[in-house]
Amino acid sequence: MIFPITFFKAFSKRSAATKSSITDSTDCKIDDKQDERKFKAQWKYPDLLAQVYIHVAGVYGLYLAVTSASILTSIWCVTMIYTSGFGITAGVHRLWSHRSFKAKLPLRILLAFLFTITGQKDIYTWALDHRVHHKYSETDSDPHDANRGFLFSHVGWLVLTPHPNVECKRAQIPMDDLKADAVVMWQKRLLVPLFAIFCIAFPVSVPCYFWSESLLNSLFISFNLRFAATLNIAYCVNSFAHMYGNKPFDRHISPTENIGVALTALGEGWHNYHHVFPWDYKTSEFGQKFNPTTHFINFMAKLGLAYDLKSVPTSIVANRAKRTGDGTWGFGDSDVEPTLIETS
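^ Fatty acid desaturase domain-containing protein, sequence as received from the core. Prediction below:
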């Protein structure tokens, strides 16, 4: 079993010796009796088998979509991918992880159901790891540290045991706001039956009932193919958007502006901006970027279901781009003069 782990490491951007010298605090190091460089991730076999099954079955679902299934089933699959995606982008990410806006109870319930359809664990666990990721990005404490390689940040972190610093930091991140949210804790407590109903039964039953799709086709397309596609779209934010693209707001960090990820992930690919201004509900410069999730939140605000939307003034964006960006900022000809304003 050594080869697969070595395969993950082959994509690493720095050596283990170099990485071990990067620390984010002294209170989360491995016990001094154990050389930090000797840490070796182990397979989490249930998670590994689950990922293998999801992806192999997803490929088979794609085959069925091309060869035997109704075109309506494929349309339903794509519709479900992008409708449920708002549960990730607007829900667990912008609302529950970053608190970049507030949502009334009906919207929180809707976003919780949409997120459950995606099958990506529970809201609380997802938000916890994302908060750790932002606070300790690209260090040993980052759950999907991009410095450990493309494959690790894309999917490897889910099937390998985490670095001890990750576990330590998870225990330190404040989560009282989510513990006080009844919707979040309800979804966490009932995740297994909710997953069975909303991630499997509901998507699979619709094609069978409404246009007499076969159960086999609907299972492998509406569940497996959809699930695999949704997962990989989300994974791309952790991998591609941390490695490939420009850095108009801060050239010193790993996250980038990646238009490919933005186009497929409902606007979540403008990642350099997001890591510089994580409290901005738009996660990008609104009006300049493709961002369906921002339009979704704005629509909910018009309905009175979303409120207290946080954003960053253009002058502050300009200051930061001119001070630390790589020179590719879209407003490069702005008359706003840079000042030493700390924004992150």
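Residues 1-23, 31-35, 332-344 have pLDDT under 50 and may be disordered.
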